[in-house]
C-alpha cells in the first residue's frame, strides 16, 4: 500500500472547471427542450449564435491579454454564459440582439474585470439587463406557446424571422405573436403570464379576472410551467452531482415563497400567488443556474443564505411593485453588489481563533 501525502484539506474534488461546466450544460437540457417545444426553433438559433460569438470573443480577449486562447476556451465558462443569455431572451429577437448581449457579457463584464473568477457581476444577467434597457421592444417580444399561436413558424420561417424579422411570406414578428381569440377580431398580441398579469392589474382588473386568460392553464401558465419544471429537474441533477449546494436555491425559493404567501394573504385580488411566482418567468433557471454562479455569489454558507434570500425578496418586490414583469436579472445584479459586505460579515472564524469584535 502507498500512502498519499497532500496538503490540507485532504478531501479533494477531482473535477476540473470544464467538467463542472459540462454537467451544468447537460442539466440545462430538460428546460431547453421545453422551451424549444413551446416557443419554437428560435431558441436553437439564439443558442447557436450566442455560443459562436462567445467563443470568438473569449479567444480574442485572451489573445489580447497574452493568454492561450485554446487553454482558456477549454474551461467552457464562455459557453455556459452564452447558454444562459440565449435562453433568457425571446426566441425570435433579431440576431444582432444576442450578438451585442454576448459581446458585452464576455468582453466587458467578464474580461474587463480580469477574466474567469474575477468578475463581480453575473455576466449573463449583466448582458440581459443591457439588452432589456437598450432594446425593450425586441426583448419583450415573446412568442405565445405553440398550442395558442395563430401562426406557428416552421424551421425556415423561424430562421427568416431571426435573420430579417419577416418570414418569406412577409409575416412580421408582431403578427407571429398573435393568438386566436374566437371572436370577430382575428387575434390579440400575446404576452408572457407575468407581463399579462401586471398589465391587467394596472388597468384596474383583479387577479382573478387577469388569470381568466386562456394561457393560464395548469399550475402557472401554458408553456412556462413546463419550462420551469424542466429547469427544476436540471437543478436537482446539479444538487445530486454536488455541482451546487442547496443553500442558494433553497434560500431563494424559500424567500420568494414566503413573500408570495404573505402577499396572497393580505392582497389576494392584486398580488399573484405562490404558483405564479415559482413556475412563471425565469424562477427555476435563476434558482439553480444563475444565482449559483460561484464567482459573483457569496462564499460562506451563511453568506449564501443571505445572498439568495435577498434575491428572492427583490424578485418579489420588483415583480409586484416595479416596472418590469420578471425581475431576476435586476435582483441578481443588485445582490452581486452586496456580496462584498455579505462576505465581510459572514466570514467564518479561523479554526483555533476567536472572532474579533467589530
Overall description:
With 358 residues, the chain is mainly α. It has helices at 17-27, 29-39, 42-64, 69-73, 77-86, 95-110, 123-134, 136-139, 155-164, 173-176, 193-202, 207-210, 224-240, 247-266, 274-279, 283-290, 301-321, 328-345, and strands at residues 178-180, 187-189. A two-stranded antiparallel ribbon has the order 1-2. The model is unreliable at 180-189 (pLDDT under 50).
Distance from N terminus to C terminus (CA atoms, Å) equals: 50 Å
Low-confidence stretches: 180-189
Strand order of the largest sheet: 1-2
What do the pLDDT scores average to? Answer: 85
Largest beta-sheet details = 2 strands, antiparallel
* Radius of gyration from CA coordinates: 22 Å
The proportion of residues in beta strands is under 5%
Considering the chains and any ligands shown, give keywords for the structure.
358 residues; mainly alpha; 2% strand; globular; 2 strands; single chain
List the helices and strands and how they pair.
Layout: H1 17-27, H2 29-39, H3 42-64, H4 69-73, H5 77-86, H6 95-110, H7 123-134, H8 136-139, H9 155-164, H10 173-176, E1 178-180, E2 187-189, H11 193-202, H12 207-210, H13 224-240, H14 247-266, H15 274-279, H16 283-290, H17 301-321, H18 328-345
Antiparallel strand pairs: 1-2
Amino acid at each position: 500500500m502507498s500512502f498519499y501525502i497532500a496538503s490540507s484539506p485532504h478531501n479533494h474534488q477531482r473535477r476540473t472547471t470544464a467538467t463542472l461546466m459540462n454537467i451544468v450544460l447537460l442539466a440545462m437540457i430538460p428546460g431547453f427542450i421545453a422551451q424549444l417545444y413551446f416557443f419554437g426553433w428560435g431558441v436553437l438559433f439564439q443558442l447557436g449564435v450566442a455560443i459562436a460569438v462567445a467563443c470568438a470573443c473569449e479567444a480574442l480577449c485572451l489573445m489580447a491579454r497574452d493568454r492561450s486562447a485554446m487553454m482558456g476556451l477549454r474551461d467552457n465558462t464562455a459557453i455556459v454564459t452564452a447558454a444562459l443569455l440565449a435562453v433568457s431572451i425571446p426566441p425570435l429577437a433579431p440576431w444582432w440582439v444576442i450578438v451585442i448581449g454576448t459581446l458585452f457579457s464576455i468582453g466587458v463584464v467578464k474580461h474587463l474585470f480580469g477574466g474567469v473568477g474575477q468578475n463581480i457581476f453575473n455576466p449573463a444577467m449583466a448582458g440581459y439587463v443591457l439588452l432589456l434597457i437598450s432594446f425593450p421592444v425586441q426583448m419583450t417580444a415573446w412568442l405565445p406557446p405553440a398550442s395558442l399561436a395563430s401562426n406557428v413558424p416552421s424551421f425556415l420561417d423561424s430562421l427568416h424571422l431571426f435573420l430579417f424579422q419577416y418570414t418569406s411570406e412577409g409575416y412580421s414578428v408582431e403578427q407571429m405573436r398573435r393568438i386566436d381569440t374566437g371572436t370577430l377580431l382575428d387575434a390579440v398580441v400575446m404576452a408572457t403570464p407575468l407581463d399579462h398579469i401586471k398589465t391587467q392589474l394596472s388597468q384596474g382588473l383583479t387577479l382573478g379576472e387577469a388569470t381568466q386568460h386562456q394561457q393560464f392553464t395548469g399550475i402557472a401558465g401554458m408553456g412556462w410551467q413546463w419550462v420551469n419544471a424542466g429547469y427544476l429537474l436540471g437543478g436537482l441533477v446539479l444538487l445530486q452531482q454536488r455541482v451546487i449546494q442547496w443553500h442558494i436555491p433553497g434560500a431563494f425559493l424559500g424567500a420568494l415563497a414566503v413573500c408570495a404567501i404573505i402577499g396572497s394573504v393580505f392582497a389576494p385580488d392584486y398580488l399573484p400567488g405562490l404558483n405564479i411566482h415559482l413556475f412563471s418567468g425565469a424562477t427555476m433557471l435563476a434558482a439553480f443556474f444563475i444565482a449559483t454562479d460561484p464567482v459573483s455569489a457569496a462564499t460562506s454558507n451563511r453568506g449564501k443564505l443571505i445572498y439568495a434570500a435577498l434575491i428572492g425578496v427583490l424578485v418579489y418586490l420588483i415583480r409586484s411593485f416595479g416596472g418590469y414583469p420578471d425581475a431576476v436579472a435586476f435582483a441578481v445584479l443588485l445582490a452581486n453588489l452586496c456580496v462584498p459586505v455579505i462576505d465581510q460579515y459572514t466570514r467564518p472564524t479561523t479554526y483555533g481563533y476567536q472572532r474579533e469584535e467589530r
